[in-house]
Write a structure and sequence with these properties.
The chain is an alpha+beta fold. The chain contains one helix and six strands; from the N terminus they run βββαβββ. The radius of gyration is 13 Å and the shape is globular.
Length: 86
């Protein structure tokens, strides 16, 4: 696999090239629990970014079998997804 280019976010090396999906809050947590139960290896393990701020969001990264980096994200407040004021 070629070297992965990353961008620092919250002190973590986020894969610069990745696909992402925004999920409903409860669905994200169910997926997180299933991936953990199934022993899936995380590139960046599940955590909540910007805790207690308007843009609070849960995120996690995995790699699919083809080597693509995938981000699964959920916002506590869906109105924050495209809100540039926070």
């Amino acid at each position: 696999m070629p070297n992965m280019s990353t961008t620092p976010v919250d002190g973590k090396d986020v894969p610069a090239m990745h696909f992402g999906i925004v999920m409903e809050w409860d669905d994200w947590h169910q997926l997180k629990d299933k991936l953990k139960k199934d022993g899936v290896e995380f590139v960046i393990g599940p955590y909540t970014r910007y805790e207690d701020l308007p843009g609070s969001q849960a995120t996690m990264f995995i790699v699919d079998p083809s080597g693509n980096h995938l981000e699964f994200k959920s916002f506590k407040d869906d109105g924050a997804i495209f809100d540039s004021t926070w």
